[in-house]
Structure formats: C-alpha cells, structure tokens
Amino acid sequence: MTLQLPRKAAQLIAFLKKNGYGCYVVGGYVRDSLLNHMADYRGMDFTTNATPEQIQGLFPDSEYTNRFGTVIIPLSKAYEKLELTSHEFEPHDFFEITTYRSESAYSDNRHPDTITWGTRLEDDLSRRDFTINALACDGGEIIDHYNGLDDIKNKIIRTVGNPKERFSEDALRIMRAIRFASQLSFTIEPTTLEALTAQVQLLAHISSERIRDELMKILASNSASRGILLMKDTGVLTYVLPELYPTWGSEQKSPKRHHIYDVGTHLIKTLEACTNPDPIVRLACLLHDVGKPKTRAVQPDGVVTFYNHELVSTEIAFDIGKRLHLSKHNLIKLTKLVRYHQFTVDEHQTDSAIRRVIRNVGKEYMYDLLDLRVADRIGSGSAPDSWRLQLFKKRIEEVQKQPFSVRDLKIHGNDVMDALHIPSGPQVGTLLETLFKEVSEQKLENTKGALLNRLVQLPHKG
Known about the structure:
The protein is an alpha+beta fold. The protein is about 45% helix and about 10% strand. The protein has four domains: about 5-155, 2-Layer Sandwich (Beta Polymerase, domain 2), CATH 3.30.460.10; about 160-235, Hydrophobic Seed Protein, CATH 1.10.110.30; about 240-400, Hypothetical protein af1432, CATH 1.10.3210; about 410-455, no CATH class. This is HD domain-containing protein.
C-alpha cells in the first residue's frame, strides 16, 4: 500500500536522501491519512538516521534544545533549500524531525533514562506505543513491521510488542489507549486491555496536566461516553475522576420524579447526548449532578430528594478543576455551568428573572448552558425539547437586546459630565444607575438621545 505525501514533506525527504540519509513520515499522520481523517502536515513527525548534529549541519537555522533527538526546522528559513515557494507554507510552520533511537530504563514511568541513536528504522518503530502509530512512509510503500495496517482495518488498539513493557515505560500510554479507542471508535485488544487494567496504578506517576490533556481529548472525541466507561471499567477513573464512582448505584427513581436511571448512568447519557464540541461543556455535562450521592435523602412518602445538589456538585467540580489545573477561564466556565444547570424554565417568568439567569451564568456561557439543559433532558429519558424551553430561548434573545449593566448604556460617565457640566465623582455613577434602572424597567429607551434628554431632568448638583 502506498501513500502520497504533501509536496512539503516529499521535498524534505528528498533533500535528506540526496544528502545520504533516510527519512520517513511516521505516526499519526500516516494513521489518519489511511483512515481518511483530516491529516494536517503541521502534525507530521519525521524520523531519520541522521543525528541531530548532522541535521543541523544541513539546516543551520534549525533548533535543537532537547535530549530526545528532535530538531525543529522553521520552513521560513529552509524553504529555498527545499525548493519550496513562500506561498506553500504559513509563516510559523515548521517540521519536527527526530533521529532513530532506542530507549531503556524508565525510572519515572514516563521518560527514558537512556537514549541511544539508532541506524535502523525497524528499531525506532519498535519503541512506539501502538501498532497503528508504528507505520512509516517516504512517499512510496507504507512500511509496517508490526501489523498496524491490519489493526487499522480491524479497528483494534494493540501495543507494539509486550503491553506490560509499553505501559511501564510510559504510563500515559494507558490513557492514550483509551483516548484512541474513543477518538477512532476502535476496540482495545484483550491482551493490551488486560495489561492496561493491571497497571493503572502507574498513572499515579503522571502529572495532573498530562492527565487533563488526555481527558480533554477523550471528552472532545466522538465516543466520549465510551471513553469514560472504559476508564470506569479498567479503574483508570480512580486516577482521573474518582468522584464519579459513587454516582453509579445512586438511585433516582421515585414517585413524583422523572428520572429513570441512577445518577452515574444519567451523567453518561447526558454526556452522550451533548452536541456541543467544547470539552469543558462536556465535562460540565458529566459533573452537573456529581454531588447528588452526598445529598440523597428519602422522604417519608418515598420521594427521593437531592436538595442543594447543584451547590455540592459545584464544589466538587471546582476541586476537580483545580486538581486538573484548568485555566482560570475554563474553571469559571465549568463551575458556572454546573452551578446554574437547574435554572427555571417557566412561561410566567418576568424579563427581570430571565436577565438574572443570564447575569448569573454570563452571557458568553448562556448558550452552552442551554446545550447542557437539552443534554440533561435527553439523559433523563425526556424529549430533547419542550415548548417552554423554546419560549425561553426566544425570550433570551429578546432580553439580551436590553442592557444588563450600566456599562451597556449608550452613554457613559464623560457624557454625563459634559451634558451637566459636573465634575467626576459618585454623583455620575448615581445618575447612570438611575438611568439604567429606568431602561431595565422598559420605562426609557437605551438610545443616546433619549438618555441625555432624561438625564437633564434628573436632580443633580451642578
């Protein structure tokens, strides 16, 4: 089987061959191209028998600042040598090319203690994680020493060689196996899955940031719920989201309640129903009821209640976000979506009540919250939509045309001072607050002319 490479890649390979070195594209680009997935040349990895020093000798403007043999070649500095035009690449594009290598001893279960430059492609491919990532191509026949082509055809995730050795070398491969299974809708081969399950404790050696990155990729995948269940069944979830385990078996069925699943199953089905591609929104779907087991109570009439579960769920989501080192923006987004997922949808709501919902969650997250609500309904066994929810969506659009704070008024402090000839001070803010109150009560239009006309009528000290 052959694979045609982009001209940029072909030119780099040809240049190295011209200078006496072998060079191949390896890993994800080859895999994704064979799967007809969007394969970006900027994600290409190259491997060669040239040492880093020899690569730099050919590309003096390249960068080599690591111990793994990876040299960065900026195309803006190398394109003429590769006989490319300036129109064939973006200004910040680069190639990563790594020397064939063998590795030994992984005392931290993540990085090799010893690295030795190699001379054979087969030896370099033998150190890679999964057979589907151990494929190489130089523009001709695809080189496949470990039956990766068959595993792609049969949709199988299998380690290269002994799975126990591969996972002990780099424990992050445990999560990568589940991530690839989720992204590609592949099955983890039994021996690989058995070794993965037996070695989950090695994830304790992996940083929270690396765990987070893999989790986000799983959540963003087409089979996110399957990935979470794989983590649950293998014990991986103990090192990623242990807070979810108590939700399975926490029953919600009771008189006067619409739920038909236990909490954990409901969370998985909510995640499964989420059409929003943002992994933070999907994480909120997965965690929005995580506090229910702690708040569960059965009333004398048999009704199961979860009073204030959204508050407890928010606290748990916050702790998870801090542990995963989410950015400040993503942590705020996650906790707001979880905190306010129970917003009321009622045809009798006033505009003020709807504005309060939007103000609480933030205008920038309102439509994410609606996506969570729809997924929550589906995950509860209800219809995805209702006439009340449709009405609420329409009213949100209408209400957002009105100002939400003084800053949304069409005049500002300088306008007030100029119109009334008054100095800066608390009085300016008080006048703006009065105008805002009248606008929010729909007693005054939010136009500059109307606001200035009303302004001069308000009592003030000149």
